[in-house]
UniProtKB/TrEMBL annotation:
Keywords: Hydrolase
SUPFAM superfamilies the UniProt entry points to: Arginase/deacetylase
Residue span(s) of domain Histone deacetylase: 21-290
Gene Ontology biological process terms, A to Z: epigenetic regulation of gene expression
Protein name per UniProt: Histone deacetylase superfamily
Matching InterPro entries: HDAC_classIV, HDACs, His_deacetylse_dom, His_deacetylse_dom_sf, Ureohydrolase_dom_sf
Source species: Mucilaginibacter paludis DSM 18603
Family as reported in the entry's similarity comment: Belongs to the histone deacetylase family.
GO MF annotations in UniProt: histone deacetylase activity; hydrolase activity
Sequence intervals crossing the membrane: none
Amino acid sequence: MLKIAYHPIYAHPLPEGHRFPMLKYELIPQQLLHEGVITSDNLFSPDAVDEATILLSHQKDYWEQLRDLTLSAKEQRRIGFPLSARLVEREVRIAKGTIDGCYFAFEHGVAFNVAGGTHHAGSNWGEGFCMLNDQAIAANYLLAEKLATSVLIVDLDVHQGNGTAQIFENESRVFTFSMHGANNFPSRKEKSDLDLPLPDGTSDDQFLSLLKNTLPQLIEQQKPDFIFYLAGVDVLESDKLGKLALSKEACKARDRFVFEQCMQNRIPVQVSMGGGYSPQIKDIVEAHCNTFKVADELYF
């Protein structure tokens, strides 16, 4: 059964009038339920991740300032949201949802988090709407619990996974792969194990060709026993922040190829949804829902 982490706080951590950026996290499961792709049995509600697990990836001082709501105004501006207890609760539930998803992925091959993909959070900073790095936390958890010995993070969001790269810069058991817009946020990139910066206007064929020429070789070289996939839909041509030119069909083909590689190599994969900023919310939701539909079709 396809298992999907979801909690109402994913969509509603902000005051009334500031919720549009997070509305998709409520609409995605609603749409999947409406279309009959899933039932309520597919959804699970995560608790909060414990502090010891957070501290495998984030520095103690940073986490305590986040927890105690004492980050400076400058640090909060870098995150992009005014800090609140609900926002912190959202982050710790997202991280636990990604960890829980790993267990479901071991059982079923694939599992999802409706939110997550908070790849701009580094060990001692938050930025770009990211405060705790859910997939980094989960990857370090798997290593600490000896549930994995080699992890591959496949980040296909339009923005570089700078926080993920920084967290794992000295961790040889985690290979970070980021394929992103060269001229996009963040302005200061970190160094992933493999960065593939894409020029503005990259087309369907260019994107898919590069991915197909890269990912199988990476899997062969690294031989991971677990994969984290960040499936941002801000690669779409319609995205107001993305600068690339992918169609929804190519975005869906991207997802299919990643899942097929995981299946062929019998590697469990946890999927977090990442960014999506098209002006029409229906375009964002449809593209994200396609990722779930492809996984459901292939695995179940």
